[in-house]
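A further point concerns the way the authors explain their paired sequence and structure data. An entry of this sort, consisting of the sequence and the corresponding backbone structure tokens, reads as follows:
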Amino acid sequence: MSDDSSQSPPDTAAVKDRRPLIAFTWLWVGAPLAYGLYELIRKATQLFTG
């Protein structure tokens, strides 16, 4: 059986910073979601208030 704990973790300087990608992804999903919720609330108020 091989022991994987003997391997060293990857060098943190060599790992890319993924924060910009994560922020872009949240915007890519969050912007249409926010717009959809806005439209839902707007149309629901029209439906129930007349």
User: Anything to note?
Assistant: The radius of gyration is 23 Å. The chain is about 60% helix and 0% strand. The mean pLDDT is 86. Residues 14 and 21 are 17 Å apart (CA to CA).
